[in-house]
């Protein structure tokens, strides 16, 4: 069964009391996925291409995949159950023998980190996108305050 998906990007990361709020969405809608503080920092480091003194776990995962000739093709945030988001990490391997696609269950935080590390597309299922609350205005207010343009 093929699910209809919508392309999204990471629109912002904000530290919160219980971790980090990762704002994910597009021009139409933005929603929030709560992640642990350290995962928010990792995702932010990948997004900003911040050099690291030693490889992080996600760097190691990327290096292992590259060594095997595998690439993160894309990530899909699939659903939310009891305030916990679900995701799929889609891997692609192409060589002289052909093409292989493997889809793995993964935490959204790890999926977003891997997508940021390899600059690969992020999608959300249409069904999930329709049911999440739109946080676009909240993100806009946060950005205004951060820019100092609010009086």
Describe this protein's structure.
- With 151 residues, this protein is an alpha+beta fold.
- It has one domain (5-147): Bifunctional nuclease domain (Roll).
- Helices cover 34% and strands 41% of the residues.
- The protein is built from five helices and seven strands.
- The chain has helices at 37-47, 57-67, 108-118, 126-131, 136-147; strands at 5-16, 19-25, 30-35, 70-81, 84-95, 98-106, 122-125.
- A seven-stranded mixed sheet has the order 3-2-1-7-4-5-6.
- The radius of gyration is 16 Å and the shape is globular.
- The mean pLDDT is 92.
Number of domains: 1
Query: If you compute it from the alpha carbons, what radius of gyration comes out, rounded to the nearest whole angstrom?
Result: 16 Å
- Superfamily at the CATH H level? Bifunctional nuclease domain
Distance between the termini: 51 Å
**Into which percentage range does the β-strand content fall?**
35-45%
Please report the number of helical segments: 5
Mean pLDDT: 92
| Main beta-sheet annotation | 7 strands, mixed
CATH class identity: Alpha Beta
Question: What ranges have pLDDT less than 50 throughout 5 or more consecutive residues?
Answer: none
Look up the CATH topology. Bifunctional nuclease domain
Which class best fits the helix and strand makeup?
A: alpha+beta
| Name of the CATH architecture | Roll
Shape: globular
Number of strands: 7
Q: How much helical structure, as a percent, in the residues?
A: 25-40%
Strand order, sheet with most strands: 3-2-1-7-4-5-6
H/E order of the elements? EEEHHEEEHEHH
